[in-house]
Prior knowledge:
The chain is an all-alpha fold.
Amino acid sequence: MSKFLGNFFRSIGHQVDDGIWRLxxxxxxxxxxxxxxxxxxxxxRLTAKEVYFTGVLSLIVIMVSGLFVGMxxxxxxxxxxxxxxxxxxLGVLVALSLVRELGPVMAGLLFxxxxxxxxxxxxxxxxxxxxxxxxxxxAVNPIARVVAPRFWGGVIAMPILAALFSxxxxxGGYLVGVQLVGVDEGAFWSQxxxxxxxxxxxxxxxxxxxxxxxxxxWISVFEGYDAExxxxxxxxxxTRTVVTASLVILFADFILTALMF
Length: 261
């Protein structure tokens, strides 16, 4: 029994030690990435290409998801508010739910699943096929040429996607609340306009989306760059990106919400 407990705690200790070491390596990687980010702005077409890859190509899934989330909020919110005679406040409920929480969080999760995994797989495959090593042989820094543009492309695209998710969600709530169940259109928009504050609600949602964009992009490029140069290694790195980014988004959302509200 004592031997079993000893092996158990030894295994936990190794996992904690490896986790701390990996976190430190990721932080050093981020610092190096920021140092070599100048080329991403001097040759902005590299970053613009990644904004298109991570942002524009994610528009369909983001906007369709936002539309249906807003429609569900409209239905559920109307059924709840109707019990208390406050169905005219449906616009406020939909807007605040999306701008404060669901917009940044859902967009971040979708961004990690679609764009983050793609970035990890792309960098991992470049490492597996020795393209990154070939760049180093030609005196081209792969972090500056490959990693940094993808990082900043994700950081730029994520807040825009979150804003579009929230806007599409509000439109979905309008379709259900006003056009389907018959909430007064004037009350829907006027109460939303009077209750949603720019600094307390919209700006805090934007800050969340920027933080989520940084975290997801950081995890994506790090996992791709650190992946084992094999097909299995790239597959495991892609899986780690989605799982780790999703958990980090939810944890960061709790911390930011506690600090903001």
